[in-house]
Design a protein that fits this description.
Blueprint: H1 2-15, H2 28-32, H3 35-45, H4 53-67, H5 75-91, H6 93-103, H7 110-117
Helix pairs in contact: 5-6
InterPro entries: A10/PebIII, OS_D_A10/PebIII_sf
Pfam families: OS-D (PF03392)
Signal peptide: 1-16
Length: 120
Amino acid sequence: MKTILVLFALLGSTIAQTYTPTNDDFNIEALLSDIDALKGFINCFLDKGNCDAIAADFKNELQEAINDGCSKCTPAQKHIFKRFLEGGNEKLPSYIQEFKNKYDPDGSHFSKLEKALENA
């Protein structure tokens, strides 16, 4: 019985170490193919526009994810974040630069984040 309790405790601590996977099935490619929707997401993150439920959910963990190199991100979240940055840089570089300036004003976190997202 004690072994079972220890296993549940370990499982619980493992689950608590990642962000909720609620939006892990988010279609990032659809977002990147719609410039207006992409602008809307970024404007949400920059506090310049309204946030829909999904953007607001991502925004809740955004600062922590950037600061800690996405260490609590699920593999799907890492992929979404990587594609968001890549696609955003390609399509809206000034928006992504403003995003980086807001969430990493001294430039100390994005290199760690990008390294963590390399293989996502």
